[in-house]
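Researcher: Here's my situation. A collaborator sent me these components and asked whether they could plausibly form a single complex. I don't have experimental data yet, so a predicted model of the whole assembly would be a useful starting point for our discussion.
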Amino acid sequence: MTAYLLKRLIIAALTLVLASMVVFAVMEILPGDPARLMLGLNASAEQVELLRDQMGLNAPLAVRYLHWAAGLLSLDFGRSYTYSVPVIDLVRERIVVSLPLALIALALSTVIAIPVGVFSASRQGRAGDTLAMGAAQLGVAVPNFWFALMLIYLFAVWLHLVPAGGFPGWSAGIWTALKSLLLPAVALALPQAAILGRVARSALIEVLNEDYIRTARAKGLPYRAVLWRHALRNAMIPVLTILGLQFAFLLAGTIIIENVFYLPGLGRLIFQAITQRDLIVVESIVMLLVAAVILINLVVDFSYAIVDPRLRAIPGKVRSGFPSGIAPKQILRAVQRFRETRNRSRGRQ
Amino acid sequence: MKLWKTILAAAVLSLAAATSAFAARTDLTLGIVLEPPHLDPTAGAAAAIGEITYANVFEGLTRIDDSGQVQPGLAESWAVSDDGKVFTFKLHSGVKFHDGSAFSADDVKFSLDRARAKDSLNPQKPLFAHITDVTAVDPATVKVTLDGPQGNFLYDMGQVAAVIVGKGSADGNKDKPIGTGPFKLDHWAKGSEITLVKNPDYWGTPAALDKATFRIVPDAAAAVPALLSGDIQAFANMPAQDALSQVQSDPRFSVVIGSTEGETILSINNKKPPFDKLAVRQALASAIDRSAIIDAASNGLGKPIGSHFSPGDAGYVDLTGVYPHDIAKAKQYLKEAGLENGFSATIKLPPVPYARDGGQVIQSQLKEIGVNLQIIPVEWAEWLSQVFTNKDYDLTIVSHVEPNDIDIYSRPGYYFQYDNPKFNDVIKELGATVDKDKRLELLGAAQKILAHDVPAVYLFELPKIGVWDAKLQGMWTNWPIEADDLTKVKWTD
C-alpha cells in the first residue's frame, strides 16, 4: 500500500510538471499582447514596450517559465497583469463562490440521481423506469443556460423568491449568500443528475443480473436489502468515477452558468483572464485546477477501496499503470475495473 | 398617562417610518457588461474605467456634458493668451480629495506633467503632446503653455484620461481611486460589483444618490431578467438588443436611444493590393447597402454615416449619398480596376455583435459583385496584435469610439495604412485653428475627403441604448464620451 501510494504521488508530481510546461507553452502561442490590451488604440509603440518591460514580458521565455515555476513551488502564484494584485488573492475571492456552488450542485445531483437510478433499475422496462429515463434524457439534452434562464424567469422575475443573479458575498449573511447560489446550483445540478442517474441505473442493472444477487435472494434476504446493501454498493464505482469528474467540471467548467447568473466565480475569472491575456492568472489557475483534479482522482481511487473491500485486499494488481489526472481515461478505467470486478466475482462462483 | 405616552410614542414612530417610506430612493444599481481591469483612467484604455469613474469619482479641469459641450470642471474659469498658446486656469477653492488632502494647483501640474512624461503610460498620451510647460502660479491658478494654438485643447482637458489625480495618492488609484468627485469608492467586490457612495465633503452641488452600485452582468441574456426582477434599475447601454422589445412595451421602464462617438466602419488595409486602388475601394462602397447592415448589426437603431464623423457633433456633413448602393456601378468600378472577375479577400471580425453580424451581411453583399470574403473571427487580443499592430489584414469591422478622432487617418503607421498629403494638411491646419467657424469648415473638408477617397467604408454610428426605471431621472441620453455621469441622477416619486 505504501509503495503504491508513493508511486501514485510520483506520477502525480510528474503530471504536474508536464502540465505546467504545456499550459505555459499554450499561453505563449496564443496571439495577443496584454500591454497593448491595457493601453488601447491611442498609445504609442514606445509606451507599449515600456509597459511590457514593467510587466516583465520582455524576458526570455525560459527565464519566465523558470521564474513562474519556482514561484509555484513556494506557493507564490505571481501578480495579475490587469488587476495588479497577487493571483492568490483573486483565487481566494473566487473560490468562496465556486467551491460552495460546486459542493451544493454535487450534493443536489447525487441526492436526485441515486434514488432515481435505484428506482429505475428496480423497475427496469416498466412505466416508471421509462418515465424517469425520459426525464433524464431531457435533462441531458436541454442546454443548461436555457434551463437557467427559465429558472430565473420563474423564481426571480415572477415569484420574486431569489435574486436574478449576482453574489452579495458571505458578509451579507449566510442565508442571503446561499439564496443567490440556489438557482445556479439547481441549474448546474440537474443535467449532472441526469447523467449520473443514467450511470447509476445501468451500473445497478448490471449488478442486479449478477449471480451473487440471486444467491443473496436465495438465502432469503428481502429484495430491498439486497438492492440497497449488496447491489448498490457494487454499482457505486462507476458512479463515483463520474462524480469525481463532475466535481472537477463544476469547479471551473461553469463559465456559462456563472455568466448567466453573473457570479464572480473561478470559471469567469479564467474566461476574463484569457480575453484580457492576463497570462499569469490563466497559467496559475489552470495549474491549481490540474492539482485539484489530481487530488480528486486520488480521493476517488481511495473511495473505490472503501465501497469495495476486495480492492483493498489486492491493491497492487488492480491499480497498476494508469496515470492519474487524465479525465477520459478515467472513465475507461472505471469501466475496465468494473468489468474486472465482475469477471472476478464470476470466476469465484 | 403612561398609556398615552406609549400611544404617542408609537404614533410618532410610525409617522417617522411612514415618511421615510415615502421619501425618494437614494440608491441605484446599474448593470455594466465588462468589468474594468482597474479604476485609474490615467493608466488604462478600457472604456469601463471611464464609464464608472468619470465625473463621479474623478474630475478634470473641464468637463464634457451630455451634449458634448465643454463645461467648467475643477477650473471655474480660464483665460487664453492672444496667441492662443497660454491657458490660465482659475481653480475652485475648498476642493478636497477623497483622502482628505487639499486639492491645489500643484496637483494639476503633477497630473499633466505625469501624463506627458517620457515614461507616461497614459492611454491618451497624444492629448498632452502639445503642452510644453505647466506652472502653478499660486494654489488656485495654473498656467499651461502649448507649442502652438490648439483648437481642441479645452475639450481634451475634459476627456477621461485627463482627469486630475492627487500627488500623494496617484500610485494607488488602480485599486483605491482617490479623486475630487461627488462620489467615492466604497468597495469593489472583484468580478461582482463596484459600489460608490456619496462624498459628504464634495465642493460642488452634492449628488442626490447616496449609493450607486455598478454590477457586472456579462451575459446579454441575463440583462432583461435582471431589470424585470428589479435587481438592476438601469443599463446606460443595454447589451441585449434582440430582447429590447421585452422592456420597450413595459411601462415600468424608459428606453432611450441616444448617439455615441462610435463610428462603425469597414476598415480597409489601404496599402494591400488590390485595396490600394481607389476604384476597388469605390466598388466596395457602392456594393454595400447600409440599411441592411444597420438592421442586422444594430437592430435598425444605428444612424447611417458617410464619413468618419458623428451625426450628433457640430460640423457634421451628411455624405451618405456619395456612393449610393448600386451593384452595376460597383461592377463598373471593378472593371475599371481590371478586376471584372472579382477577387477573394479576408475579413477579420472581433467578438462584438455589430462586427460578427455585420460581417455576414457584408460578405453576402460583396458576393454580388464577385468579391468573395472569407470570414475570420478573432478575439480582441488577436485583433489588436494582428490587425491593429501588425496590419496583417485585408478588411475588418470595428467601431472607433474615441470622440473627435477624424485625425486618426493622418497618423503615421495607423492600421488603415492610409496616407493622403491633402488630408494630412487639412488635419494639421485644423489642429492649430481656434476660430470656431473656420474649424467647422475644415472638419467638413476633412469629412468630404474621406467620403470620396474611401480609406474605409463608413457604415453607421453605434447607438446608445439606455434602459432604466421610468422613475429615474438625469441619466445621460448620449455618450459624447463613455461615461455614466450620476451627478444629476435622482429618483422621482
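Model: Some features of this prediction you could bring to your collaborator: Chain B touches chain A at residues 35, 37-38, 43-46, 119-121, 123-126, 174-175, 189-193, 215-219, 221-222, 225-226, 228-229, 231, 379-382, 384-386, 388-389, 400, 402, 413 (CB under 8 Å). Residues 15-21 of chain B have pLDDT under 50 and may be disordered.
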